[in-house]
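Example A, followed by Example B.
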Amino acid sequence: MVVSPSFPCSVVGALILGCLLLQASNSNAQLRPDFYFRTCPRVFDIIGNIIVREMGSDPRITASLLRLHFHDCFVNGCDASILLDTSASFRTEKDALPNANSARGFNVIDRMKTQIERACPRTVSCADILTIASQVSVVLSGGPSWSVPLGRRDGLQAFFDGANTLLPSPFFTLDELKASFAFAGLNRTSDLVALSGAHTFGRAQCQLVTPRLYNFNNTNGPDPSIDTTYLTQLRALCPENGDGTVVANFDPVTPNTFDNQYYTNLRNGRGLIQSDQELFSTPQADTIPLVEQYSSNRSVFFKAFVEAMIRMGDLQSLTGNQGQIRLNCRVVNSRRSVENDDDGVVSSI
């Protein structure tokens, strides 16, 4: 069971919530872990229980929800723009190349929003639902818990072009990865290496892998950084001119567990996509010592991951009277959906 933040810190409560009030946070001063303690004390409970149920039939869902949060935050900040469907005013980010036919979990977010609206109408933003869902997904998969800064508001538009240009590509070199992360506001080497560790669980489609296996950089051969045994395994799963939508585990050792095996895989030439292996196989890269450190010390990786997640969650966050609290995560509120709370404060625009 997932414990609500209204419960005292206990073994289980600390696992999911990180004993929110007892942990310091370096987040945006307007975001705070106790934001919903009084207005929606069961928000973690609702989100966590939905994820637990979904994991029974879809073990990929935790990685998918974390990926949604990443892809949201990298495009104009963590404003739930990735959840918006196409409207008369904008085209959905779901159609952008990095998301089309690969971003998943939208229906799970819809269920969370529906239940939260029943329990706490017009209170919890879709951006915060994504943020909480990513933290709970990591914890339920064996990863670290942390204090989640909350209080984001939802944006009013999607950014199709931004999703096509701002999200890191699986074919990026290390320099391109660094530039992408720095542009987003994550300019520390530890941000890049730690957040890449999210690929310690989840899947990727073969179409993102096959260029490395058969014609890397137009050489008519494989990426030389791939371990030969792993290359044989990947070619069996992803044959040349085969079905590009077949999925491969990012981590062939512990595919559904959030741990530090990802970094050991990189050291062994078993990074699934090019941008992952670049962290270790780029000569003299400043990322190499961090890969080695995170591989040998899970606690150090977990600490770095938590710090980077909090930093990412702060990116261009809308707070206060900015944006709105969407009643449906797929649609910007209409003028007719504007309602006043009992104290007269408008809860959405």
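Example B, a separate protein, is given below in the same form.
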Amino acid sequence: MMMKLAGALLLMFLVVHGVECQLQVGFYSGSCGLAEFVVKTAVRQAFINDRGVAAGLLRMHFHDCFVRLIDSTSSNTAEKDSPPNNPSLRGFEVIDAAKSRLEGICGGVVSCADILAFAARDSVELSGRLGYDVPSGRRDGTTSLSSEASSNLPPPTSNVGQLTQIFANKGLSQAEMVTLSGGHTIGRSHCSSVAPRLYNFNGTGQDPTLDAAYATALKQQCPQGNSNANLVVPMDAISPAVLDEGYYVDVFSNRGMFTSDQTLMTNAATAAQVGQNAGNRMLWSAKFAAAMVKMGQIGVLTGSSGEIRANCRVVNS
């Protein structure tokens, strides 16, 4: 039922708005018919070994839509090595595996941008039992600047106004911002991103909007003065590997992990959406599918623009 509802809403979205930027579902049907199957296989194999990889791939797609993810060079620090991305992004090896297999089947045909879009969709399906079609035909960019990550990606300290503006800059509405925020229901955060709300919020100690019991649990997992940069905490303590409405239940109960999560309750419109999504998983899932498709069309290159990378980590020589 959930998948049918999502599919119906997605179809309506595509009919009303059109698939922009020359992207189309089934783009590789004639040139590399196994493209989506190869990506799905790589994602499934990785998911079996580590269910947390789904969150990594979903987040990577979000970040690649807002910026561009390639490796740094001796003369340039790329987005993936900027503070918002490093060391939190993960799952690059899954994209590498899929790309390697596809290059052996149909070299120079399937872009890394499309592989990442497919992998995010497959991650959503594996972790949330929610499927949707991905319009494809993207080409890969050739530049990546660390500074763009800091200026384009919303930090965890963002308030609702800042979030709304950042998403609006990319052509996404406030409602779509709330919908896509639900992706925080899976995955993990480094304690360094959580600690300011626990120990030094506006220089006064603990954030007063944080549920007391939740704050205590977070402090146990992220002790003050911790020097382990790799210490992490699950975004959703109840179902950290399941894409569901748990994010909204937590935010509604003052258990949003970041300021950028809890801030959704400070605005009447976004708070109403939080409450609605918390009580209706099917509705949120359908909106999430449509928002993912729209987000996947941000700033894409098509036609003769960009390139098809032979290696997803570097531009072609």
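On Example B: The longest helix spans residues 112-128.
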